[in-house]
Design goal:
Elements: E1 3-13, E2 16-20, E3 30-35, E4 38-39, H1 55-66, E5 70-79, E6 84-90, H2 102-108, E7 113-114, H3 128-140, H4 164-171, E8 176-185, E9 188-193, E10 198-204, E11 207-208, H5 238-249, E12 253-261, E13 267-272, H6 279-285, E14 290-291, H7 293-296, H8 301-317, E15 335-345, E16 348-352, E17 363-368, E18 371-372, H9 389-400, E19 404-414, E20 422-430, H10 434-439, H11 448-454, E21 459-460, H12 473-485, E22 504-505, H13 510-520, E23 526-533, E24 538-543, E25 548-554, E26 557-558, E27 564-565, E28 571-573, H14 579-590, E29 594-597, E30 601-602, E31 608-610, E32 612-614, H15 630-636, E33 641-642, H16 653-666, H17 670-687, E34 693-703, E35 708-713, H18 717-733, E36 747-753, E37 758-768, E38 774-778, E39 784-787, E40 792-793, H19 797-800, E41 806-811, H20 824-835, E42 840-847, E43 853-858, H21 865-871, H22 890-905
Helix pairs in contact: 2-3, 6-8, 11-12, 15-16, 21-22
Length: 924
């Protein structure tokens, strides 16, 4: 018969134990052993059964004697009919060095009856005679079950009737003694509370272990829909987690902290082990479970911190449930420091990081980790704001805009745009105060995410177990719980405020803007918030006092213009030198900042103008000194210059002129090259420009609008050569595309059908769409098209050597007229009717910095195309451009002006309501 040493894992009754051997590979062996020659009172195993007298006391006596101890055992006999082993179990030697047999102890204490050898036909304990003697002593002394009936004899487990919420309310903050009766999973227990003997199920708060019996899976492949679902096997590491908890808690005396109840009435708490260790922390440290964020909210902040640290250690070591864990590989640096320049929503902001590797990386969009703020609507799609969305954005703007922040990047996700971009999620901290740094040099400032949640303006994301989350997740949960308790904003039971902010938009209605002018100028200074930056000197303001939006121009100065974009991000006008830099300077210094403006007047376009003063970050009213005057700051940075016309109309013109002189003397940016470039241009004009260049034979190849087009020099041999080579290219390669790396600015061949069948033409890629298609401009014609990837292929080297045959051009001294403006489409049609398909002569008056030609076109009979369109009232001259006319160009300009005067007199098209010329550009 078997014998050896083992650990008592469980005590099932007053005469039956579960012994556990040493583990080698896999779970340790177990043996259920009944004490030989003994019969203890039967213990109920279900609500339908009842205890025999003293059954509970008998089990408890044996449990306290041996649970968890190393014992020596011997199997005395086996009853095959019931498949059970019977034997003797000896406790470790006592102080006298004597091993006591549990069979004898139970008999001596009167908690089990001894079966004589005659009654036990299959075998008997080796100490049966001693047991019989000790039993007689117990009877004589009325010990155990031989005592007079009392409460102990009738102790019974309360199987039903537990009210989890009532138990938490009764014992909140107290330690409740209990016995762990069963372990279902690593983090799911059945416990008996003392002294009531109430049986309850308890989940370990904050921990989720793999389940031994997960929900049944569906029938395999749906072959038999009527068959019951096959039971799923234990989840990986489920048995290991269960065993881990069993060997430490099963049938042990513990103390419980009853901490919360979920919406289904399940009780959650913590187990305080006599050793002082927290089983929840130990499970997480050994990789046998994951933190359950939703139930961790029941625990204290210190307990959550301990569990979070334990889980982090297991993840780093890739223990068990984390064996496949891969730490996120960040494209961004882990730690960043920058200035908040824009708040997109209650959980997203844009940070200017000056130490980034390239200018393109200097502005980073940061999403607050593990946070979900109410969603802002979309006015274009007529989607309203979610309740409290505007309040969340305004809270974060007021808290963070223009502040220096420290960013801890925690994880990244692919952008929904599908263009390979990533969304960066991070915890963002304000700079700590000087006092805090003095006390602790490593102190952190306020966590913006915690602030938003604490204000009840965002919710904490409940992550899946395999998802990354904020390293300060527990702080977020604590803040959310507090906001819920205080019923703040999102958690309020009151009706949420109206989601639509009724604001009067004056940005696109000059007439209405001028009606507001008296109200805007009643006071000398008006407080506003910068909502958008158009250029360095032109912004959109929200004026809270009048509840309106209006365009505002910093008076008295001009700046280089940034690029102008049309539909789908197409650049319709390239940036002037320093134009983008100047716009970024304004954006980074005043975007969403509070400003004070002194509105002096309004131009005909409804743009208000005057000085603008930036409100200090700490609030208060800004002084009118140079430090807060934004126009002065632009001038001092060399990103603007004084406009001689409009500076006389502003009250602080002398201040602006002094600032310009300081930038000139230091040769900052614009002034570093302006004087030299002006002299070079003047010298070149003096030496070279005595007449305009003329191309005798050109044709229009593309009309963008009535003033903007592309021309081909049909007298150039290269034009014909390229055409022949592309015909040969089409014959050689057919019409099938060929895969290659399609990227912006790549020159390739693209298919185009001009009505004579598809053919390959040279093209330049301007934009690559997420689906692989690309927007291209055909180099030899100037037209644009969007083509799929299978309509592109690489060009042969002999075709690449030729320059583009289509030259971009605009009419000289003519004001641009996009096709989207009134009479814009008519102008484009008129140009096509007059000049398309005809051989024209082209007079080049000048060339812009980016290569676009300023020209006049003439029909075969010598008549000017521009004069024809001016006379029809479809175009108008650019008054500013007329100031830069060279003597030999005067006759051309006179013809244009005379043609326009004719259209004015006869009130044609643009002039149908009289003179539309305005000075609205002056001062902008």
């Amino acid at each position: 018969m078997a014998s050896g040493h083992a650990t008592v894992k469980a005590v099932l009754s007053g005469d039956t134990l579960v012994l556990m051997g040493a583990a080698t590979n896999g779970p340790p062996p177990e043996l259920m052993l009944t004490l030989a020659s003994l019969q203890a009172p039967r213990l109920a195993r279900s609500p339908e059964q009842s205890n025999e007298p003293y059954a509970w006391a008998s089990r408890e006596h044996l449990r306290k004697l041996c649970i968890g101890k190393q014992v020596r055992f011997k199997v005395e006999y086996r009853v095959a009919a019931i498949n059970r082993d019977f034997g003797s179990v000896w406790l470790p030697p006592n102080a006298r060095g004597v091993e006591e047999n549990l069979c004898v102890i139970q008999a001596r204490t009167g908690y089990a009856k001894v079966k004589s050898p005659e009654q036990s036909r299959d075998g008997a304990c080796g100490d049966v005679e001693k047991m019989l003697q000790q039993e007689q002593v117990a009877v004589n002394e009325k010990k155990g079950m031989y005592a007079d009936a009392d409460a102990e004899s009738n102790a019974t487990v309360q199987w039903h009737g537990a009210d989890a919420a009532a138990l938490v309310a009764e014992h909140k903050g107290k330690l409740v003694p209990a016995v762990v009766e069963a372990v279902r999973d690593g983090a799911s227990l059945r416990v008996i509370l003392k002294p009531s003997l109430q049986l309850v199920s308890l989940g370990l708060a904050g921990v989720q272990c793999p389940r031994v019996n997960p929900p049944a899976s569906a029938a395999a492949d749906g072959e038999n829909d009527d068959a019951p679902a096959a039971p799923a096997g234990p989840a990986p590491h489920a048995r290991e987690a269960k065993h881990f908890t069993e060997v430490r808690l099963l049938h042990r005396d513990v103390e419980l902290k009853l901490e919360g109840v979920d919406k289904y009435g399940n009780l959650f708490g913590s187990v305080v082990h006599p050793s002082g260790r927290n089983i929840s922390v130990e499970l997480l440290k050994n990789g046998l479970g994951r933190m359950a964020d939703w139930s961790s909210a029941f625990t204290s902040a210190s307990a959550r911190a301990s569990m979070r640290t334990a889980e982090k250690e297991a993840k780093q070591q890739k223990l068990r449930v984390w064996r496949d864990y891969e730490a996120p590989v960040l494209q961004s640096a882990k730690h960043l420091t920058g200035t908040v320049v824009e708040v997109i929503s209650g959980d997203c902001l844009v940070v200017y990081v000056p130490d980034a590797a390239t200018p393109a990386e200097q502005e980073k969009r940061i999403y607050l980790s593990s946070l979900r703020a109410p969603r802002l609507g979309n006015a274009r799609r007529q989607e309203p704001n979610a309740p409290y969305a505007a309040e969340a954005k305004e809270f974060l703007r007021h808290r963070a805009i223009s502040k220096t922040v420290h960013i801890e990047v925690e994880y990244e996700k692919p952008s929904p745009s599908g263009q390979g971009d990533v969304m960066t999620f991070a915890s963002v901290f304000l700079e700590p105060s000087a006092n805090a740094l003095k006390k602790n040099p490593s102190a952190k400032g306020a966590n913006l995410a915690v602030d938003v949640v604490a204000a009840g303006l965002a919710e904490v994301v409940r992550h899946r177990p395999d998802e990354e989350k904020s390293e300060y997740y527990d702080d977020l949960v604590t803040a959310e719980t507090k906001a819920q308790t205080q019923k703040k904003n999102l958690h309020s039971t009151k009706e949420p405020p109206a989601t639509e902010r009724r604001v009067t938009d004056l940005c696109f209605d000059a007439t209405k803007a001028k009606q507001f002018l008296p109200f805007l100028t009643r006071e000398r200074s008006t407080r506003a918030v910068v909502e958008h930056v158009y250029s360095a000197t032109r912004v959109k303001l929200f004026v809270p006092k009048e509840n309106c939006l209006l365009n505002f121009v910093v008076a008295g100065i001009k700046c280089p213009q940034p690029a102008r974009h049309g539909a789908q991000g197409v650049v319709v006008a390239p940036a002037e030198p320093l134009g983008e830099e100047a716009k970024l300077f304004t954006k980074r210094n005043v975007m969403q900042r509070e400003v004070m403006v002194e509105i002096e007047d309004m131009d005909r376009g409804g743009n208000a103008f005057g000085p603008m003063f930036v409100v200090p970050s700490g609030g208060g009213k800004p002084s009118r000194d140079d430090q807060h005057n934004f126009g002065v700051r632009l001038l001092e940075e060399g990103l603007a210059w004084v406009d001689s016309f409009s500076v006389e109309r502003t009250a602080l013109g002398n201040v602006l002129q002094r600032a310009e002189e300081r930038a000139k003397s230091q040769k900052k940016k614009y002034w570093a090259t302006h004087d030299a470039q002006a002299k070079a241009n003047a010298a070149q004009a003096k030496q070279v420009k005595t007449k305009d260049d003329v191309i005798p034979r050109v044709k229009l190849s593309e009309i963008v609008n009535g003033t903007h087009f592309f021309i081909q020099n049909v007298g150039d041999r290269n034009c014909a050569a390229v055409e022949e080579k592309m015909k040969a290219f089409t014959r050689t390669h057919g019409l099938a595309g060929k895969a290659f790396e399609v990227r912006r600015n790549a020159v390739c061949a693209a298919l185009f059908d001009d009505g004579n069948g598809p053919a390959w033409n040279r093209a330049k890629v301007e934009y690559v769409h997420p689906d692989g298609s690309a927007r291209v401009r055909f180099l030899d014609y100037g037209n644009e098209a969007t083509v799929t990837a299978n309509c592109l292929r690489p060009l042969d080297a002999d075709v690449l050597q030729f320059p583009p045959q289509a030259k971009e051009a605009v009419f000289s001294w003519i004001k641009p007229l996009p096709a989207t403006e009134e009479f814009g489409a008519d102008a484009a049609m008129r140009l096509g009717e007059v000049a398309w398909g005809k051989t024209l002569s082209c007079r080049i008056h000048s060339t812009e910095d980016h290569g676009r030609l300023l020209v006049s076109l003439y029909l075969p009979d010598g008549k000017s195309v521009a004069e024809n369109m001016l006379e029809a009232g479809l175009l108008r001259t650019d008054r500013k451009a007329l100031h830069s006319v060279l003597p030999f160009q005067k006759s051309v300009v006179d013809g244009l002006v005379n043609a326009q005067d004719t259209a004015k007199q006869q009130r044609r098209c643009l002039w149908q309501y009289g003179d539309i010329e305005s000075d609205d550009e002056q001062g902008l």
